[in-house]
Design goal:
The protein is α/β, with parallel strands linked by helices. The chain has 7 helices and 5 strands; from the N terminus they run ααααβββαβααβ.
Length: about 240
């Protein structure tokens, strides 16, 4: 007989559902600090869909058909709007903080290998490394574009010695011209053209493990996102 404190297999799905609900609630609370109209657009859009469904039920019928059709559509539309606006709000809160790009890169899907802060200078400009089918992607972030470019150039040269024919792409995350905004960073990396096979990916990862640390390895936050709040997957899509 299971103790009251124990979670039985039958209780696990229920506990998981409540965990997801708490996570959504936390995400809403954090995002609404920046996006004051988050609730209006989320629930308002779902309400409009349901209102249209009810109107069609009254005018056309049968009522149960339009209600059954309207409910999932309203839920889907509300979820999409909430996800996108919450994502944008969270990114706007962390943009410019040390480790923000690392947090954005953690939304990459399986098959991508992210290594945070492989090179850091005393001003806390950082370079992160992503390995995937496009090859090696070096992502720089910091408060000074010239410094970040210099740090990226150093890392590009170091990686080129071991990369062989594997392509190396440099990206700077930021809001200035020519840089990639934080909310678009994951999508930008994923859209890079495929250049290597999974076997070549494994080979280059093994080679890079032997590479000594770059620049000054100073302590740096592993990302400023609040605890227990995950960025939406898919649109910006953990490795």
């Amino acid at each position: 007989m299971a103790k009251k404190s124990e979670v039985t297999p039958a209780d696990a799905p229920k506990k998981q559902r409540f965990g997801r609900m708490r996570q959504i609630g936390q995400a809403y609370k954090i995002a609404s600090r920046t996006d004051k109209r988050l609730g209006l657009y989320t629930f308002g859009s779902a309400g409009v869909i349901m209102a249209i469904s009810i109107l069609l039920a009254v005018l056309v019928g049968p009522w149960f058909f339009w209600v059954l059709v309207g409910l999932p559509i309203a839920f889907l539309v509300g979820t999409i709007i909430f996800t996108r606006r919450a994502e944008a709000a969270v990114y706007s809160q962390i943009e410019g903080q040390p480790g923000a790009a690392a947090s954005a890169l953690q939304t990459l899907r399986r098959g991508w290998f992210v290594e945070q802060a492989i090179a850091v200078n005393r001003q806390q400009d950082v370079v992160h490394r992503v390995i995937g089918k496009p090859g090696i992607v070096l992502v720089g972030e910091g408060t000074s574009t010239p410094r970040v470019k210099n740090l990226l150039a150093q890392e590009h040269k170091r990686h080129a010695r071991l990369a062989g024919s594997v392509p190396i792409t440099d990206i700077i995350a930021g809001k200035e011209e020519g840089q990639v905004p934080l909310r678009k960073l994951g999508r930008t990396v994923q859209k890079l053209p495929k250049a290597i096979t999974p076997a070549e990916m494994t080979d280059v990862r093994n080679r890079l493990r032997a590479m000594p640390s770059g620049a000054n390895q100073l302590p740096i936050p592993k990302g400023p996102l609040p605890k227990n709040v995950k960025l939406p997957k898919g649109s910006m899509p953990p490795r």
